[in-house]
Design brief:
By secondary structure, the protein is α/β, with parallel strands linked by helices. It contains 13 helices and eleven strands. Helix content is 39%, strand content 14%. The strands form three sheets. A six-stranded parallel sheet has the order 3-4-5-6-7-8.
Length: 352
């Protein structure tokens, strides 16, 4: 069987010079997707309320693929993922959750339920307990169809009746926030503060640093969120050093979690920002025709040959931010392991 990812000399050099000594020996990946080839979305599916470029990286990502990727890309490290399915694939959510539960039980891993907002509190709780999940992954694509993408609120796909059930048990919520304004959007900030204040038992993780991939996505968000005390932020699929620095300054290292967003972080790219929009620079031809995608741009020659993995770029950006903000060795260990371990331990207690 061929490897899920090719490790080139440029990758090995990058890993050895910038990552191996920075990353601790034990890692928890708080943000990893799994699904099977049978559950993969057909190519002709119309775009949903999301960018479509991540689908170019992997049509599926089984639990075996995921664990092999860690062995190849993070040699010498012991990685435990928190797994959940991919809300962008076109298949029955019950099938997706069934595979996640089976894979988690077989590999003894923590897992999240992919949740639909139309479920009652009792339905949600029953599905969590039956599948052995320690919380939920919610996603804006499941908001009612009549709502325009620009108008979606967090409570449209994470309703308050479900939050009440999650709050009672102290379960984990992995939240990909909506709206074009991303983290700086006042509606998002208001909803995040309401969750913090009204549902204090929920272990909230704001994915991708609130989708603040460029500094223009931040606005005054960290001034507002600096008053929070519980919500956490994962750094998955984000490579912006300045965003990471502002996150560290606002909430401290104890509420930052390492995540990869596997399998897309095995993509070969370098991300830049232009006018407040992120652009993924990728080798020409590697991911098909990307000419119509405003977030993708192909490059050639020596510049393309120097491109390494998305995950490596993410870790290196956080390394630079951590050094600039004076994080200690213990702080870094907590970001990559300890913070998630504590969060998961509490959520695992709640599901039993």
């Amino acid at each position: 069987m061929s490897a899920v990812v090719e490790i080139k000399p440029v990758d090995s050099e990058f890993y050895e010079s910038r990552i191996r000594d920075f990353v601790p020996g034990r890692i928890i990946d708080i943000h990893a997707h799994v699904w099977t080839a049978q559950q993969a979305a057909p190519a002709e599916d119309p775009p949903a309320r999301m960018v479509t470029w991540p689908r170019r990286v992997a049509a599926w990502n089984t639990i075996e693929d995921l664990l092999e990727t860690y062995l190849l890309m993070l040699p010498g490290k012991s990685v435990t993922p928190l797994i959940f399915s991919n809300p962008t694939v076109a298949t029955d959510v019950h099938s997706l959750n069934a595979y996640t539960a089976e894979a988690a039980a077989r590999k003894r891993l923590p897992a999240l339920l992919l949740a639909r907002p139309e479920w009652s509190a009792g339905e949600l709780e029953g599905k969590i307990l039956a599948g052995g999940f320690c919380g939920v992954k919610v996603y804006l694509s499941y908001a009612p169809a009549g709502i325009r993408p620009a108008d979606i609120r967090i409570f449209d796909f994470l309703p308050r009746h479900q939050l009440q059930a999650l709050d009672r048990r102290g379960l984990l919520v992995m939240l990909h926030i909506p709206r074009p304004g991303r983290l700086r959007d006042p509606a998002n900030l208001a909803d995040l503060l309401e969750i913090e204040r009204s549902f204090g038992g929920v272990r909230l993780v704001v994915a991708h640093v609130g989708r603040a991939y460029c500094i223009e996505d931040v606005g005054d968000a960290f001034d507002v969120l600096a008053e929070t005390h519980k919500m956490c932020f994962d750094i998955s699929a984000n490579t912006n050093e300045e965003v990471f620095r502002r996150l560290i300054a606002a909430v401290g290292a104890e509420r930052i979690l390492f995540g990869t967003d596997m399998p897309i972080s095995r993509m070969r790219l370098r991300r830049i920002c232009e006018g407040g929009r992120y652009v993924n620079l990728v080798p020409r031809g590697l991911y098909g025709d990307v000419s119509g995608d405003r977030n993708m741009r192909e490059i050639d020659g020596p510049e393309a040959e120097r491109l390494t993995f998305f995950m490596y770029e993410q870790i290196d950006a956080f390394r630079r931010a951590a050094q600039a903000e004076g994080l200690t060795h213990t702080d870094v260990e907590n970001v990559f392991y300890g913070n998630s371990r504590r969060l998961l331990n509490g959520a695992i207690e709640g599901k039993s």
